Amino acid sequence: MRALRILLIIAVVLGGIFVIVDRLAVDFAEGEVADRLKSTENLSTTPDVSINGFPFLTQIAGGSLDEVRIGIREYEAGTGDGKQNIRIEDLRADMKGVEFSGDFSSATAADATGTASVTYDELLKTAKSESTQVGPGVTAGVIGLSDGGNGKIKVAVEATVLGTKLPEPVSVLSSVTVVDGDTVRVHADALPAFGGIEMAEARVREITDFEQKIDGLPGGIKLDKVEAGKSGVDITVRGSDVRLAG
Hints:
Blueprint: H1 2-40, E1 48-52, H2 56-62, E2 64-78, E3 85-100, E4 107-119, H3 120-124, E5 132-135, E6 138-149, E7 152-161, E8 164-165, E9 170-179, E10 183-188, H4 201-208, E11 210-213, E12 222-228, E13 232-245
Antiparallel strand pairs: 1-2, 2-3, 3-4, 4-13, 5-6, 6-7, 7-8, 7-9, 9-10, 10-11, 12-13
C-alpha cells in the first residue's frame, strides 16, 4: 500500500509538472505568434493571440493546433485604390485546424471565422459629403451616419432647395450588405423628398448610396455578412486555407 501511495504521489507531481511545462510552452508560443503577426502584417500594436486545446505539447508534436484565436485593434485595411486605408476598430478571428511547418516559419488554418467592426465616422469617408446638385435648384450631401435600428443605417443628408438650406437634415434609412466578399454597400430603402421637387432617382442615389471596399485582411479572409450596430457596422468575416505567417 505504501508503494502504491508513493507511485500515486509521483504520478500527481509529474502530472503537475507536465501541466506547468505545457502552459509555459503555450505562453511562449502565443508570444512568438503575436510578434510574427505584428511583423508580417505591419501592425502598429501587438495582437492578442490565444492557443486553445490541451495538451499543447502533444499538438506541437503532431504538427497541428486545434484552435488559434487572434484579436487585432485598429487594423488598417486597404480600400482597393492604393491611396488610403480604412481603419477596422476591432478584428477578431477564430482559426481552426492550424498546420505549421517544421521550423514554425509558416502556418495555415483550414478554416477561419470572426468579426470586424468599422465606425460610422470611418465609413462616412467614402460617402459623397460635398454638396452636389441632385435636381433643379436642389443640392445635397451626406453629413452623418448612425444606427437606424433593425440592422439599418440612418444616412443624414443636408440639402439646399432654391438657395435655402433645409432647417433639419433629411434622414434616409438604408440597407447594408456585403458584395463580392470585399465591399460594404449602403443602399437607400426609399429616396428622400427635398421640398417636393421632382428629381431623377439616379441623381439622388449618387448621394444616398455608396460602397466601401475593404481588402487586404490578414491571411486573405473575406467579408461575409454585415449589419448596422450602435456605433458602426458589425461585419462577419470568413475564410479557408488562411495563411497566418510565412
